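ugh ok so i messed up the first submission bc i forgot one of the chains. this is the corrected input, ALL of the components this time, i swear. 470 residues overall. if the numbers dont match what u have on ur side tell me asap before i send this to the collaborators (the ones from the other lab, u know who)
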Amino acid sequence: MSIYPRNILRLCLIVLIQVLILDNITLRWWAEPNNFPIFVPMVYPLFLLLLPFETTVPVLLILGFISGIIVDTFMNTAGIHAFAAVFIAYLRTNVLTALLPKNLSEYPNQSPSVKNMGWMPFLVYSSFLILIHHTLFFALELWSLENIGYLSLKIVASTATSLVFVIIYLLLFTRQVSVRNNN
Amino acid sequence: MRNFILFIRRFFNLILFIALEVLCIVLIARTHMMQGVDIMSSANALTGSAYQKQQDVVYYFRLKSMNDSLVNENARLHNLLARASGSLDTLKDSSVRLAVLPTDTLHVVTYNDYTYRQARVINNSVASGNNYITINRGTKHGIGKGMAVVSGTGVVGKVEYVTSDFASVLSVLNVKQKVSAKLKDGTYSAVSWEGENPDLLIMENIPQQIKVKKNDSVYTTSYSFFPSDVLIGTVTQTKRASKNNMQTLYIKSASNFRNLQYVYVIENKLAAQRQRLEDSTKMTNKK
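and heres the new structure output, hopefully the right one now
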């Protein structure tokens, strides 16, 4: 599959998973009375993380804005998702250059994945950007530093669960793509 | 001019980044002022129909619990009808005329004209700071902005965005708006939410001399957009604040927000008139 339809398809798939399934889970960590924050795992930043290496920053920013606005529309949080998504889209190139041994232009037609980056660099890359995304999102949503402990707990717990879902997504979908390419 | 173009070209990424972020901040600020941006909500046609499709699938899995809640509600309504039939004016179709002050000494009987419309919840959230519920009724079915929404068991929220087929309801679980509330003996205060547990609401500034017991009921007042005497919840805990001799009540909400399926949208026919009167009073006070 060419790179454009694949990424458009991925955007639709990830947004649908996010909006129709994950938003309804409202995970609670363990049991009721611990006063632990409830939260929604967010996997849609993964779309931005998996764009090809060569994507230029303006394109990344605009795609980040579009994906954020779509999720915003579904979740009634006009602008908050888009803000966080544009921010990580801006940081993405810098983080990738810092993590990869070779120049970004030396990976033609490839997307960041476990296969060409290795597990550890990829996890560092995704967890760092997702952590920043969640921090911005929850800080903007609650809009007060009154109970900062609660806020940070919510951020850390959401990042951890989002990462679990990111890994599940990678295990489910990257394998199929590579098999299809081998054939 | 050349330098300017060079400057733009050099910092194009940064400029685009800042422009998009400013756009986002403008959007956020506008929704926090609670007006406009109706397109940007889950009430628009596209997101609404997506949620409707999803709900069509999930609907069947919940029929059993929904049946139970409807039976319970029926029983409650029968009780209410038996008790209140004295002060009811007429009872036809879904429209109820309820005397505002049934024991008015001047023998002036006024009526609040409420119309109840049922709606199905097609999307719901309890996890964010301001939680919205999307329902499958819109202007086509007579829903308007600012109408109160209740469930079979208690208050739910207020209609905030409407399109022709769908509406978004800002639920009581939000950090933007408080709900006017009263205890059984008529002590008024406001109920708010802290943004944490979706079962727990908070009622602040109750004077200490008011004795509040556990499981006391908290109702809405006629001061707000809700009809009066709709159950908000029951008190689970009282706490005394040492500094100002007030107590804070923790309230378990009567509606189960995790599991909303059917709600009623209440239209108050006299609301516009009352709003106009109150606004004009405010205007004259300012002058």
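quick check: Residues 177 and 258 of chain B are 20 Å apart (CA to CA). that seems consistent at least. Chain B has five helices and 14 strands.
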